[in-house]
Design brief:
The protein contains eleven helices and eleven strands. By secondary structure, it is α/β, with parallel strands linked by helices. It has three domains: 82 residues, Orthogonal Bundle (Arc Repressor Mutant, subunit A); 102 residues, Periplasmic binding protein-like II (D-Maltodextrin-Binding Protein, domain 2), CATH 3.40.190.10; 104 residues, D-Maltodextrin-Binding Protein, domain 2, CATH 3.40.190.290.
Amino acid sequence: MQTKWIDDLLAVAETKNFSRAAEIRCITQSALSRRIKSLEEWVGVELVDRGTYPVQLTKAGRTFCDQGRDALATFMELRSALRKGDRMPGRSIQVVAGHTLSMTFVPKWFVEFQRRNGYFNARVLAANVHDAVIALAEGNCDLMIGYSHPQVPIFLDPDKFVGLRLGTDALIPVSAPDASGKPLFELPGSPDQPIPYLAYTATSFLGRVVDIIHRIATKQSHLKRFYEADMAMHLMRMAREGYGITWMPESAVEEEIAGGKLVRAGGNEWSAELEIWSFKSISNTNQTMLELWKSLEKDVR
């Protein structure tokens, strides 16, 4: 049994709706249903009456929630106490950031922020957006930093989490240059010569944003997908070697473009603006985190 299954059931009990509970838990509805079913198999009885609308818990489900809530609180307090001994010494926070942001935005941001607001220790872990959201939701970090887009927003329960917009970036198409410095591959391509496409995996955040770019584009692109990866830096290296076109956060390719190793492979119509957001739990009691957040609120005003 996994403790997150208890949170899943509590979300269903609170919302009486699988779809809304899945949003709160930052997972898909099908994943939530599977996890509730796994919890029922572990307990050995049905906990949710799926024949009612709105969704209701069975008598066993209500009993499990009442006692499971207290048990989960005890486990969380124990975990918090144990983790205090595993934190970095002194004033410190634990951060989970998107893979690309952990290598580009976060280091520069920390240096500048500490220069103006005082030094603190930070442990930064890289993750995809989905895993970063889960880490924050499950209390595995003090601060989450990730990309967001109006059509691919980060869903977090506003009663439990608060967010601040730290800045913006752009998702742009890039290619290696030819001998004259022009793009080796340039959008939109043509039906008889489709552009080799270095793509993000379908479920990745940046991959979903690229799909939106294509949907709203005024021209038809002609791409031949032949390579996929879920990490932007991997695709960047492939593009730099001349294997095809890909989309990259502009901050991640500034040096490559300045050095002539990569060039933009299309106009602004093939780009999208990204927002950089930070989130924390409202219940976070880490004094260093609270001081950091107060300074961030002043910065974004």
